[in-house]
Amino acid sequence: MGFIFSKSMDQNLKKQQEFMLLNAQLQLERQILMQNQMREKQMAMQIAWSREFLKYYGTFFSLAVVGLTAGAIKRKKPALVIPIVPLGFVCAYQYDMGYGTLIRRMKDGAEQIIENESNLLELPQGMPTFELIEKARKAQRKFFIDK
């Protein structure tokens, strides 16, 4: 009788463990999807911001080019067009960020770093462990209790 009872409990325990594993897997998949959606939304906002900024900066840059060029011609001082060069670099960067291939190049560069230079990505003092986090939590709690 005891053997049948323990066999039934073992089967229930195995079913419960399988259910818990499946539930943990489902929860992890949901977290990964949610984090990826948040990442995509943040990237979309960054690209949209770059495009919007480019509209305003492009207007400023155009007016600056016309004004500086006209001033250089009128006053016969070619040095007045020098600020156009750095302003042009900023404008080109913003265009590349909003409409060009900058993000694709950054992604390719990140993949190269992950594949070939992963040692640069290591955290100082290694990956945090449960023990280290608990130790810090207890130390912080003690610090606040002592005050």
From TrEMBL:
The chain crosses the membrane at residues 53-73, 79-97. InterPro entries: Plg-R(KT). One of its GO terms (cellular component) is plasma membrane. The keyword Transmembrane applies. Keywords: Membrane, Transmembrane, Transmembrane helix. GO terms for biological process: positive regulation of plasminogen activation. The keyword Chaperone does not apply. It holds the Pfam family DUF2368. This is Plasminogen receptor (KT). It comes from Pyxicephalus adspersus (African bullfrog).
